[in-house]
Amino acid sequence: MEQRLRGNTVRYEYVVRKLVEYLARKASGMTQRYELKDLVGSTASYLLERSFERIAASLYKTNGGSLWCRLCERGPFTKKGFYLHLIRVHYHELEYIVEDELRKALEVVRR
Fold first, then answer.
1. CA gap 64, 62 in Å, rounded
2. Where are the domains of the chain?
3. pLDDT grade, residue 51 (50/70/90)?
4. Looking at residue 64, what DSSP letter applies?
5. Which positions ≥6 away from 50 have C-beta within 8 Å?
6. How many alpha carbons fall within 13 Å on the CB side of residue 77?
7. pTM recorded for the entire structure
8. Which of 81, 89, 74, 102 is nearest to 15 (CA)?
């Protein structure tokens, strides 16, 4: 599937972009706009959901009800502010993480 997605570069980039948004929203505690299974399929979504839970929890820390970024130690942020911070400042890091997790999930699905 990864080969097919990479062959269709526009589709692959779209999926990665939406997964980065999904991860940023999960980390900031905002509601999701997309179902993960609609983006990557039901089998891969189960695997990605577990890894995104773990990754999202490692992206922030809380202090007095505010969110602080563990990647750059900036804060405090509201939920929306933290989401915007992740997308604007750390997009490429999240993109790398998402691509790596997507590759791992697709390898498991392929077996």
1. 7
2. 2-59+91-110
3. very high
4. T
5. none
6. 23
7. 0.89
8. 102
**Tokens, residue 69:** 């970024």
In angstroms, rounded to a whole number, what is the distance separating the alpha carbons of residues 69 and 16?
Answer: 22
Q: Nearest to residue 95, comparing CAs of 18, 33, 2?
A: 18
Among the listed residues 81, 55, 84, 53, the one whose alpha carbon sits nearest the alpha carbon of residue 66:
81
Beta bridge partners of 77: 67
The token pair at 80 is 């929306």
- List pLDDT tens digits, range 56-111: 999 999 988 899 999 999 999 999 999 999 999 999 999 999 999 999 988 888 87
